[in-house]
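Bumping with the actual sequence this time:
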Amino acid sequence: MQANDREILRQVRDGDVRQYAVLVDRYKDRALTLALRVVRNREEAEELVQDAFVRAYHNLRSFRGDSAFRTWFYRILYNVCMSQIRQRARREPVLRLEDQPAMSESIPDRKMSSALEQLEQKEIADILSGELLKLPDKYRTALTLFYTEQMSYEEMSEITGLSVGTVKTHLFRGRNLLREKLVTRLQEEVLL
């Protein structure tokens, strides 16, 4: 039976620091997905995820357990990512789509009946992922936390430090903007 986060944290606090690796294994993939969506660079994202895990480990004593470990950790990761974005804003921003995971990585694998259907799904996922990356940070982050990480409004609020109302607004505006971009893109492709 797999131990829950609270039990693992208790073991780590009691001196079995090797148990922290269980939490790292449990959250590293989703953390990398979130970091990639925010900073849009694989190498940076990997470093930021490592940094966030180290920070979380060093601050475990301050974790009160008012929220889930996952929420607390993602808040740390989000802050680390936003600090990186602020530092990068001083330099010229570069959008590198090749560093991004395809949206299909977060879509459950569906049994498709033909190679053509698989190709069409990949193409749609790539278009969706590409358009998502073009959204402003606040909308891209909100959509990623809600759809990819399947977080509640309250968890998103806790992670971002925004009110629940603002989180809902970012989701609403992000969905609408993404929809507009997708419609425009698809109309352009149909006309070609």
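The tokens above came from a reply further down the thread. The first helix runs from residue 5 to 13.
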